[in-house]
Amino acid sequence: xxxxAMLAAIPSVCAAAKSNAEQRPSPAGRISEFVRLTDPVTExxxxxLTDPRSANVxxxxxxxxxxxxxxxxxxSSDRSGKPCPFQVDxxxxxxxxxxxxxxLAPRSLAMDAHERSAYYIDGxxxxxxxxxxxxTRTVAEGVTAFGIAGSSSDLCAFxxxxxxxxxxxxxxxxxxxxxxxxxPGGAGCLFVQxxxxxxxxxxxxxxxxxxxxxxxxxxxxxxxxxxxxxxSILFLSSVDxxxxxxxxxxxxVRGGDERVIAPTSQFASFAPNENGSVFAGASGSKxxxxxxxxxxxxxxxxxxxxxxxxNAAAVSPVFSxxxxxxxxGSDREGKxxxxxxxxxxLVEPTPVQS
Length: 354
Known about the structure:
Strand content: 35-45%
Helix content: under 10%
Shape: globular
Distance between the termini: 64 Å
Strand order of the largest sheet: 1-2-29-28-27
Largest sheet: 5 strands, antiparallel
Number of strands: 29
Number of helices: 1
């Protein structure tokens, strides 16, 4: 090769090296699985947190699983041979197994408000894991779903087919459900019952038991979240407007008619940020399988990146407490993995409660 040919080849070699570097782990690769990618649609930087050679699953988006104080995230992974709880440091990428489980319900992981403990269902047993001591204790048996309030001692759960307030032992509902979410402040909880593969009902139960459970919504509904003030719930509803579309609806826990907050680009899953001003959604569109931001005030959408997941409902995007990042899951590179996108230039940060 001549000297001139060698000099001419340098730019292409450098470009190839740069391209390969984008796919390799960060400098902390020995303790980290972080890989920085560039989205092919928006050219947005996307960070992959976990190796897709194992199945890594985020908890329910309604659960607290991202630490706002110590910058870590808890998730489930089968990298040890079966699903177990893991923790990843969001600064260094270092991850480690929290405890061993036999039959972990992967999406059940949830932290208490003080970020001292994690709760999860192992088999039909609700357990608490102390982050400090790594010791576990049994909270209740025969549990199929649970929800935790601001206090780590305030829990509601479906125990042997009945909705029970574990703190007082009070039975709130007799019929089994598959999802529980406690109201901010702990005054009540909502629960979801699956009536058939396409139909669900959402109910509200008062902790004091002063009135029977109240039906809030029914139909092709999913992904219920409390509004910031705890006076209403937000959820996805698939409705017929000549064609089938997905809308974000809101209904008061005092009862009344549903109201439309915004139509969406076929959201299959979604979550609001801390103050309810912005929504993150995973589009179920086959042509545009994207993670999308929806600005509530103007009903405007902004594409963040592709998710390309085989099941858009499992993407389950969720905001960090300060609204600076969105985390989501996708099996686009093999088994399910966890990704994040920075929003600092797009969304006003929200205050983090101490």
